[in-house]
Amino acid sequence: MTPETARPFTDVHAPVAEALAAGKPVVALESTIITHGMPYPNNAAMAKNVEKIIRDGGAVPATIAVMDGRLKIGLSDEEREALAKTSGAMKLSRADLGFAVAEKRTGGTTVAATMIAAAIAGIKVFATGGIGGVHKGAEKSFDISADLDELARTPVIVVSAGAKAILDIEKTLEVLETRGVPVVAYGSDVMPAFWSRTSPYKAPLRLDDAAAIAGFFQTRAALGLGGGMLVANPVREKDEIPASVMAGYIAAAQEACEKERISGKEVTPFLLGKLLEITDGTSLKTNIALVENNARLAAKIAAALARD
Ligand code: PSU
Ligand code: MN
What we know:
Shape: globular
Bound molecules: pseudouridine-5'-monophosphate, manganese (II) ion
Strand content: 5-15%
């Protein structure tokens, strides 16, 4: 897909098109988190608020999704609200993005699909909650998210709160290293674990300000290294669920997942839903807070990129 061949299938929302044409900062946002990651109406409120945070940070938000077969780069308020209410939306990654466009379906884009769309639109920074990664037990299930391959090939900075603690963080880091994806923890020596600020794993790289992250990205591009990079931004202390507390919840959710024989792309939504139940909504509060935190940092990185 190139910008030219994708154009007939793509709708770029006017404020996004204007910002891109003027070289102003733009931040992409994914939509699987809206369609599959959170229940309505929390998903709608989160999606709206995250866009506001990006605007307050001086950048233009571009929520990406497929609606009735149109690849949307930026949604109107009405479209975003409609997507949040859609039941039966597809979960779209690299493998099925083209299917949804060809068959005129509606779906939320994962980190992988959002990166693809951002790259064709010329957007370099993308904020999400957590990326997909290597699932626990992957040596049996082979369940490794397409997000990791996409990070290796598509030149977008993905700002996340690390890999979800429902994943095998150690194996996820190994795969990212093998694929040549830089993982930069923001202001931390250890990898954050989504709901928690810390994990037992050392961060491969550390940078302490947005301008340095932008500079690193530009240097990689100049060296012709290709591909994207992952920024791991720890959730704020006041919003975190400590790793020791989270571990018990995750084990319980995992057990339910195995018992109910959930597999494939249902695994992540199932585990998130189960955790929501088990934690009585606390995990959702933290999830929303960390997405907002990532949006703030992504706006700063986009602003730094736009300055150069
Ligand atoms: N983080 C969340 N909720 C989500 C996801 C991440 O808090 O719904 C989504 C992202 O879109 C990510 C996807 O790209 O889960 C990974 O799914 P899979 O493991 O099937 O590749
Ligand atoms: Mn998977």
